[in-house]
Amino acid sequence: PSAAAGADGSAKPKVAAVIKGLDNPFFQAMQNGIEGTAKADGVSATVQAAADIGDTTGQADKLTTLAGQDFSCFVVNPISGTNLVQALAPVGAAGKTIVNIDQPIDATAAKAANLKVATYIGTDNKKAGGKAGDFVTKAVPAGSEVAIIGGIAGDVTSAARIDGFKAAVGSKVKVVQEAAADWKRELALTRATDIMEAHPDVKAFFAANDDMGLGIVKAVQNAGKTGDITVVSVDGNKDALQSVKDGGLSATVAQYPYAVGSLGVQACEVVADGKTLPSNIESPTALVTKDDADTAISKFPQPFEEFDNPLTSLLGK
Amino acid sequence: MTSTTTTDTDLDLVLSAEGITKSFGSVHALRGASISMRRGEVTALIGDNGAGKSTLVRCLSGIHRPDEGSITINGSLVDFHTPLEARNAGVETVQQNLALIEDLSVWQNFFLGRERTRGFGPFRFLDSKAMRSKADEMLGGLAVNVPPVTSKVRRLSGGQRQAVAIARAAGWGSPIVIMDEPTAALGVQETARVEGVIKRLQDSGVAVLLISHNFDQVLRLSQQVWVMRSGTAVAGRRAVDTNGDELVALITGAKAA
Amino acid sequence: MTSTTTTDTDLDLVLSAEGITKSFGSVHALRGASISMRRGEVTALIGDNGAGKSTLVRCLSGIHRPDEGSITINGSLVDFHTPLEARNAGVETVQQNLALIEDLSVWQNFFLGRERTRGFGPFRFLDSKAMRSKADEMLGGLAVNVPPVTSKVRRLSGGQRQAVAIARAAGWGSPIVIMDEPTAALGVQETARVEGVIKRLQDSGVAVLLISHNFDQVLRLSQQVWVMRSGTAVAGRRAVDTNGDELVALITGAKAA
Amino acid sequence: MNTTTTATAPDVQRTTPADVLRDARHLSFWAEHAAPIGLVALIIVFSILSPSFLTLGNISAMLTAAAILVILAVAQSYVITTGGIDLSISATMTFGAICFGLAFSGGLGFWLSALVGVLGAAVIGIVNGLLIASGKVTDFIATLGTLSVATGLALIFSNGRPISVLSPELLQLTTGRIGIVGYPFIIAVVIGIIAWVVMFRTRFGLHVQAVGGSEEAAVANGLSANRVRIAVYLISAVLAGIAALLLVARVGAAEPAINTSYLLNSIAAVVLGGVSLTGGKAKIVGPILGALLLTALSNGLTLLGVSQFYQPLAVGLVVVLAALLTRFQKR
Amino acid sequence: MNTTTTATAPDVQRTTPADVLRDARHLSFWAEHAAPIGLVALIIVFSILSPSFLTLGNISAMLTAAAILVILAVAQSYVITTGGIDLSISATMTFGAICFGLAFSGGLGFWLSALVGVLGAAVIGIVNGLLIASGKVTDFIATLGTLSVATGLALIFSNGRPISVLSPELLQLTTGRIGIVGYPFIIAVVIGIIAWVVMFRTRFGLHVQAVGGSEEAAVANGLSANRVRIAVYLISAVLAGIAALLLVARVGAAEPAINTSYLLNSIAAVVLGGVSLTGGKAKIVGPILGALLLTALSNGLTLLGVSQFYQPLAVGLVVVLAALLTRFQKR
Ligand SMILES: Nc1ncnc2c1ncn2[C@@H]1O[C@H](COP(=O)(O)OP(=O)(O)OP(=O)(O)O)[C@@H](O)[C@H]1O
Ligand SMILES: Nc1ncnc2c1ncn2[C@@H]1O[C@H](COP(=O)(O)OP(=O)(O)OP(=O)(O)O)[C@@H](O)[C@H]1O
Ligand SMILES: [Mg+2]
Ligand SMILES: [Mg+2]
């Protein structure tokens, strides 16, 4: 039960959101989703973000700072499964709503800390990687050489996406190399160039985010192999969609961060209305290829395919 | 050379400093010091540690700007903002710490701040050949035993360094050369060489200001002695009119000037 | 004191160094130098710049380890690996650069490396009160005009620093005190004070090794003079048997020992 | 010219009370106290701008958040006092966290695992010390190298994945508190007090300052500069290891990611605390206040809802301003 | 004891050819040449282990990839020669890239935008110079502060988003080549040559070395140390601005992301190149070779498919080894 939930059910939640680093367009879209929806629905919302993708304690500190204020609903996108658990403990203890988006909170850790999460909204990063894997297996002949470029070595999201990709491709293609490019476009370019030297027959690249995907596209262009090499990445940022349209990226797995943020705010509203949330809300993911790139761009940042939003009915809209 | 008193109207006066004061925070290093130097003479400046000798020298050579007081060179008032201005006005100085740069070669140190260049417009390059041969000549002319001008100062012994610093100051034909304790750390042979240089400078009409704690040296080389105490020049004496005991008494304040 | 030659079997011999060599890369600073010191005497060590005096001092005080050669103190061979070992063997040194730490106070510098502590086991804390009063006493006993022992060395003038360094070396009752050019940068008054300290040390039976470029001082204070040239001690003289001219000749090599 | 100027008393070195007063009116007074002054200024500004800033809850949150940085600032302060710098400090913390996590998942139990974590960090410290003291490698480069090495080792050992650590002791560490002060900050303060006593009341501390002041003079006085240097880098690493435990407790997992911001912030805290990078001048309270200042800055900016983009700008400006103040410090 | 040891010739300062030979057998020879020796060693090792390493294509790729780091290493080398350090170099590059990107999207055209980018970077350099020369702030802290400030400004100006830049000139810059050598590396080499000539053949270069050798002596000889320092930080920033253009050309977009690795690598390259962080000893070729070494190391490790986890370890070990070599350098 939310602290701010009024008897008449018309109470508005006061939303605090803590998300990952804003140095990545993905999370900026998420912020826009939160702020845009909050504004449209007349809800007050504050968004704070970690300094960068490695700033686990900084993110926890920010959450702790906000926890002391009179917010009724906390939307959190933790950098890792556990880094916000301790900071959330007092929030949970005060009976405030916790909505977990994007990166799931580690279930065991949450249990140990006696933490109840109202709902989880998000895309399975593993599933997103899987979609990319399925695409690659179809796009290149069986047994082709494939390379993977991940984010900062040791990053959780990157690992999940890569695991999903690997599981999907199985033994249908040969993963010849896995390199880290720190989420950076320039470094991905260098790595991809090097990999193409070492493995001239490489037929496809998978990148753990769009920025690196665009770097690989550039490397492929420089090598004059545009069209010969399939490049897939995950995120669905505007630049990436444009590149898909222009024939650079072969495909991107759009995760609709805007929708994720928007759903987070709506979930808070549902709780404030005194209604119960489903424990798991899946936000859409979709593979965008050249065919649907135009639609995706025109709908951006909203999902380009209709999806079943369970919260719409709960909110009575 | 035979007159025993100096007068302010002396035509031979090349440099005179009047009422120079200089403070560093709460430390009053100079409290109105006045000295003068005459053409073709060696003028000595003596005084206890911390009396302000080096600070006065630094004012004369443009490293510090005096808080008050005036400096006159060849009859015209000067006001140095940088060491370069002092150099251009004809004041060369051998600082107490020599002011050599260890990682540069002898010739680079020689010409530091007045390098010769070739070319024109923005394309001016160092004329190292000319500078090397000129430096060689300047050191050679002083007949001091130094290694090739291309070797780094770091490889030079203390005596050799002192020689380079002195040759540098002496080699530009400047009318005024100041030497701050040039022989403090030197051995007998090196000291004798430096004294030779000072005599030769004097003979060629240069006014030399010599700071030294060695009274024998002072009385042997100089014609005029200024005694400093607590930031002022408490006494001026012609060298022929004084002796070591009087100088000690003046320095310690046992005797008023 | 009236004997004019030293002999190896002398019972008064407190320190003797035999055939010390020391090289830094290709620089052979010492090439087999041998000197000795006697109880209650001031032994002087002279020589030109770079002759190896300071290097020899550093070998005797444990800063350098000689490449070859032996050092005997009170009849027993010693081999110092660190300055601490030399100190414990009774050798105190005033280094040419004073070895004071500017950011520490006078009493902290005084007791550096031999601090007094209170408490027991792992809980030993500095006994600053005891150290302060002892330092005050040691400085006061030498009757040198120094500021409170709690002031930082950075605030001291050159002469005051020299006084602290000398008082520190003199204050521990060590039988051997080495002073490397203790008056090089000092004025008349300060020099007189330091010479007083040296005489007092000598009177209390301490063997003092004095390095100096000032022959008057050397002949005035010392009983034995060692002359170094190019890394060896080329001659030893009783002070009463020699004079400035001979020393100059020995230093320059004009006269073989 | 032959007339005598009467010599004034030779009080060149004496400072009168009037001088002291004038100094205080000058900037050097502010410079010595950049951290406390800055902290008070920030507290005033933020408590005017945000009513939540000075609530007990927020103060408690700030103190807990500051604990790790306080410990790292104390560690860095020891190194900087000797004139060195420890660029590997945050990588060492990461490495210690991974060692702790691995030992714990290996079933060693909390206390033994904590020991493994601290020892793991200590190894990096000893390598730093040996490289710098015996290897005569510049501090900057040696710790830059071990930064890379420790990062690599943390990744290799953990296989690049976070290691969840769920232990009641760890939970206790995060949630326990005395009054409004959480255990992490209490630990940090205890470390600060011990560090202060060691620095200013023991022989070792005096030797640290002496080596920083002048290595040559310290050696000539019978100290072993090498031993002091090795000890200092070891202390820095051990404290980083202790900080690693707090880090794991806070985020609930040992993660191989490097926290570069901790490195730069630990140095900034020390400098804000009035310690000069040239060494020789020890301070412990200053760096701790510097760490609190940086934490309060980030906390206040978050409370005010200042965008993430403006936060580095604000931190940079504060560092530069504080440094401009510190330059008026008396030597 | 009265017997005389015959005095040997006073050749204490003379070095004989035999000494030189002995020195070469000693480590100091290797130390002076850590970068070329390391580079040759790496090339040998990698070309044995990987057949692709010495192919024309890979060499060309390596040179192009090295261009940015080469320029930054040259920039850092100027600063380090004066005894300073520029921690803001990579943040300045990022800021320059964003300025360029914004100007270009604003329709200023390539050349004018490039000018805006370089000028934007130059502003940071001037601030660094003024803080350090006139403000007397320690180089380390001043540039740490501007690192934060430049990062913040880049995020604010770009609103945290990459700015796509599609211009034919930029495309030409990435794809153009003479033989196997791409334009970026040619630009880097031209900059290196100019930097060498300026450093070793002009008054300004001599003054840079003099200020690094001894600021006090330089000033006593009539140089303005302040002016030299400001110039050096300005040069560093302008070169970072030029590197920013190559960076944008390379990825086709100006990104506000912070490139800490460029900062650390630029310093590592300079140190590998045999320059001491204490200043006074200028080198240009060494740092360039150091940059090539680091690029070759990363390229070779990728070619060999060495796990990403082992890469920081390898880089760290190379840096430490090279530093251990450099310590045997003659002064
Ligand atoms: N840059 C400075 N900052 C502060 N105090 C200074 C500075 N330079 C000199 N002083 C102080 O000014 C006084 C005079 O110093 P100065 O160096 O002129 O003495 P000196 O006569 O040359 O002594 P010495 O014979 O030891 O060389 C001393 O008390 C010294 O500490
Ligand atoms: N640490 C060192 N490294 C290299 N060379 C050194 C070192 N110490 C001394 N030398 C060299 O050894 C020689 C002897 O130096 P030393 O300092 O012993 O001379 P000195 O007799 O004390 O001279 P001075 O009268 O100038 O003090 C000199 O050539 C000097 O350059
Ligand atoms: Mg002086
Ligand atoms: Mg000596």
From TrEMBL, chains B, C:
Keywords: ATP-binding, Nucleotide-binding. Coiled coil: none annotated. GO terms for molecular function: ATP binding. Residues 15-255 form the ABC transporter domain. InterPro entries: AAA+_ATPase, ABC_carbohydrate_import_ATPase, ABC_transporter-like_ATP-bd, ABC_transporter-like_CS, P-loop_NTPase. The keyword Nucleotide-binding applies. Transmembrane segments: none annotated. SUPFAM superfamilies: P-loop containing nucleoside triphosphate hydrolases (SSF52540). The keyword Nucleotide-binding applies. This is ATP-binding cassette domain-containing protein.
Automatic annotation (TrEMBL), chains D, E:
Keywords: Cell membrane, Membrane, Transmembrane, Transmembrane helix. This is ABC transporter permease. InterPro entries: ABC_transp_permease (IPR001851). It comes from Amnibacterium endophyticum. It is found in: Cell membrane. The chain crosses the membrane at residues 34-53, 59-80, 87-104, 110-133, 140-158, 178-199, 230-251, 257-277, 284-303, 309-328. It is a multi-pass membrane protein. It comes from the Bacteria. Its main location: membrane.
